Amino acid sequence: MGKPHETRQLPLALSPQEHDKPRVIFLDAVGTIFGVRGSVGEVYRDFTRQQAGIELDAEATNDAFYEAFNAAPPAEFSDIAPQHLFQQEFDWWLAIAEDTFGRLGVLDQFPDFQNFFGHLFAHFATAEPWTLYPDVRPALTYWQQQGVELGIVSNFDSRLYTVLDSLDLARFFTSVTVSTRVGAAKPNPQVWHCALAAHDCSPEAAWHIGDSYREDVEGAIAAGLRGIWLNRP
Predict the structure, then answer these.
(1) Is 20 exposed, middle or buried (0-12, 13-18, 19+ CB in 10 A)?
(2) N or C, which end of the chain is more exposed by having fewer CB within 10 Å?
(3) Contact 179, 72 (CB under 8 A)
(4) Which has the closest alpha carbon to 61: 4, 101, 113, 109?
């Protein structure tokens, strides 16, 4: 199917030749089909000011968030009963938020930080903090018209289903595979094995497109798929 990986923008990935056309195209979610509106730091700053009356510096908050996020263990939970999954996801993000606000030195200014975070967690399940990249809907529409099945493979959490609905994207995807639900996070090949099973598709007949070279490209290639790096500015 050509080179195992390549760099391209979504509009340039629209016209696979018939002999080269995949059965399934998987896409990453955050950073690939939609992104945070502005930055995480800006969203946290605005939300914290509105909900708690506490002022944050957006750039420092953004740095603190990514330091906390990168220090966290992978969001992959094995042997979790479905009824307990949401709480596990919430607790995982709560730990990152506590680390973030602790790094900023403002954690003790919240009378009930867990209650505040509950509202922030719910905020990211809506369309408001997200922006859909302009090349995405035309690409999804074209692939769907060509008879290519579409799926998502993401290290997000169960809120992804609500976000996709809110952005009017759910109708494009036959499958949505989330790391927290399958107990494996990219670049672990197991997450793609679960995704491929939902389509009864072999790895050789599938592509995966994402913005992280390590997680999306190297992970997909290790699972036997063709990995395409979407290197957004």
Answers:
(1) exposed
(2) C
(3) no
(4) 101
